[in-house]
Design goal:
Blueprint lengths: L2 H23 L14 H39 L30 H21 L1 H16 L4 H22 L11
Helix pairs in contact: 1-2, 3-4, 4-5
Length: 183
C-alpha cells in the first residue's frame, strides 16, 4: 500500500474514532422537551464523522486493491505482450481507448495537521468568542489555506455561511448558539 493510501486509512480511522468519542459525549448533554434538543446537532455531527471516516478508509482500501490489480496488467504490457490488442497488426478491436486522468496531489501532511490544530482551536474559542466570530475566523483561515490569493471571496463565504447557519439555528430551530463577546 502506498504512503498516500496508508495516510488515508490512518486519517479515516482517526476521524472515525473522533466521531465515536464525539457521539458518545452527546449522551452527557441535558435533554429538553423540545423536538430538536441540544443533543440533536452534536449527534448528527458525530454520526457524520463516523460515516465519513469509514468511507475514507473504505475508499483507500478500494483504491489500494484496484492499484494492486492494475500492477500485473502493467507488468504484462512492459514485457511486450499487447494487452487488449485485437488483430494481428496490433490494432485495438472495438474502438475503445482508455483515458488516464491524473489525480490531484495529496495535501502535504503539514496542511492536514494544521487543519486539525485549527479545528481544535476553533472548539476552544467557540464559547468565549461566540459562534459568529469564531466560525467566520475558522472558515476564513481554512479557505485561505487552499486559496490564499482569493481572500475577498473567502471572507464573503465565511461571513455569509456563519450568518446563514446562525439564523437557521437560532430563528428556525430555536437552538441558541454561543454569542460570546457579542452578547
Amino acid at each position: 500500500m502506498s504512503p498516500a493510501l496508508r495516510g488515508d486509512v490512518i486519517t479515516g480511522l482517526a476521524v472515525t474514532l473522533i466521531g465515536v468519542v464525539y457521539y458518545i459525549a452527546t449522551f452527557w448533554i441535558q435533554e429538553t422537551n423540545n423536538i430538536v434538543t441540544p443533543r440533536t446537532f452534536p449527534a448528527i455531527v458525530g454520526i457524520a464523522l463516523i460515516v465519513l471516516g469509514v468511507f475514507l478508509v473504505g475508499q483507500a482500501l478500494y483504491r489500494g486493491r484496484k492499484l494492486a490489480e492494475a500492477a500485473p496488467s502493467a507488468a504484462d504490457s512492459a514485457t511486450g505482450r499487447a494487452v487488449g490488442s485485437g488483430g494481428e497488426d496490433g490494432s485495438a478491436s472495438g474502438g475503445a481507448s482508455a483515458v488516464v486522468l491524473e489525480a490531484p496531489e495529496d495535501p502535504p501532511s503539514k496542511k492536514v495537521v494544521l487543519q486539525f490544530v485549527l479545528f481544535f482551536v476553533y472548539l476552544a474559542i467557540l464559547i468565549p468568542i461566540g459562534f459568529l466570530l469564531s466560525t467566520t475566523a475558522f472558515l476564513m483561515t481554512m479557505t485561505s489555506i487552499y486559496a490564499p490569493h482569493r481572500w475577498i471571496r473567502n471572507l464573503i463565504f465565511s461571513v455569509l455561511f456563519a450568518l446563514v447557519v446562525y439564523v437557521a439555528f437560532v430563528y428556525g430551530l430555536a437552538v441558541y448558539l454561543p454569542v460570546g463577546i457579542l452578547g
